[in-house]
Design goal:
single chain, 284 residues, alpha/beta, five-stranded mixed sheet, elongated
Length: 284
Amino acid sequence: MSQQLGIILMIDVNAAVEANTLEGHTYLFDNMKLQGSENIGTGKLISAINGSHFSDGSQANEQVLNWLPYGVGSLPPTLPKTFLADKSRNSDLGAIDDLKTLADKIEMTDNDEFTDVDSILAELKRISKNTGIKTKVQNKFQDTTNDLGVVGQKIMDVTGEIMNDDCIPDDSEEEKIPQINSLNPIITGISGEAVDKNIIYPAAYGSPDMVTDGWYWAASVDTSRPGTYAYTMDVQLYKLSRVNEEWAWVPVHMTCEAYLKISNKPKVNGFTGKGVGFLPIPMI
């Protein structure tokens, strides 16, 4: 059976979008440190891929790589996938309850709290502010904005709290939107030297794993050709911008490189450091 090797791409989305580059804003990790991976936790990861042969000299199965991207400072991926939509919907339901309460107060009040237009207008503005700001996601194939499955999702901070107009700078301000929860980055392709030389064969796969929205990039590796090979990850980030007087997530496309170091060292057991086989069981 092929060995599954994982590569995690962590991106400081806000910093990368502001600088318009992934250089210096990516952190790569894999699960091959004990096999000799280098530069773990940096943007120049060299993933070690060993085991083109078993310890007895026979050809080993090909290795399989899996890439998963995450945003630094974003809400953790372990939250339910419906968290953002539920939070947005609950804020709308809360506003409906507040409107009902306001209507009751206007009808039943015995004081002057809600008997003039100004006080009613102030309360309506408060209710509206608490509902937050809805966003759209711009379709990368068109100039118009579309919901693309993010219907009603609202701008939130990194703690999952809904942000209102007071938290967002107006169009005349250039300051960065503070502590915003960015949309997760997406890997849209794997290319480069390792692909051109047929060292890896990447493809997008469907999966029931809801953490990755059902899609992830993977590749089988030809371990019979030792050497160090570069590959390029095509990444799509999202920038929050004003489009047609609405807040929208605009796709931004960037690339970053990493490396694979394939060796002809024998595949060994991770527990014993020796050949693949049965684990030694001490006799009692």
